[in-house]
From TrEMBL:
InterPro entries, per database record: CoA-bd, NAD(P)-bd_dom_sf
Protein name: CoA-binding protein
Lineage: superkingdom: Bacteria
Source organism of this protein record: Dictyobacter kobayashii
Domain named CoA-binding: residues: 17-114
UniProt xrefs under Pfam families: CoA_binding_2 (PF13380)
């Protein structure tokens, strides 16, 4: 099980971004100027496989990828999910810890401005590497030399 403070450690971020390349993005928007779209496009350009999760757009495409309603739907379609990157309000995040674990994800990442104690507890109890209140795009640029401002 992850250490109580593991979600704050740079080595956890480096492990996630270095070892895992398949990112399910919960709340990925089709709207071009939304942070979820910008962050996901950056990560896709950096070589990560983006798996859009958003019931509003299920069956459509965002960033050239088929959108799934749930993590379970993406997994059932054969998608490998290693990181679950969440763009939802903090109070909506606890179930995603359980869902991430159930689809075999290795890490749960709550984007900048999103933190939830119950989500952290569930993720750590499930053995997931957990990051909260950090932008995956900014952290990638910080540790792997990209530019977060493209």
């Amino acid at each position: 099980m992850a250490d109580e403070t593991n979600y704050l450690m740079p080595d956890a971020i480096i492990k996630i971004l270095g070892d895992y390349k398949h990112i399910a993005v919960v709340g990925l928007s089709a709207k071009p100027r939304r942070p979820s779209r910008d962050v996901s496009a950056y990560m896709q350009e950096a070589g990560y496989d983006i798996i859009p999760i958003n019931p509003l757009y299920a069956g459509q495409q965002i960033l050239g990828q088929r959108v799934y309603a749930t993590l379970a739907d993406a997994r059932a379609a054969g998608k490998q999910i290693e990181i679950v990157n969440v763009f939802r309000r903090p109070e909506q995040t606890p179930p995603f810890a359980d869902e991430a674990a159930s689809v075999g994800a290795k890490a749960l990442w709550l984007q900048l401005g999103i933190a939830n104690t119950e989500t952290r507890r569930r993720a750590q109890a499930a053995g997931l590497i957990y990051i909260e209140d950090k932008c995956i795009k900014v952290e990638h640029a910080r540790f792997f030399g990209g530019s977060a401002f493209v």
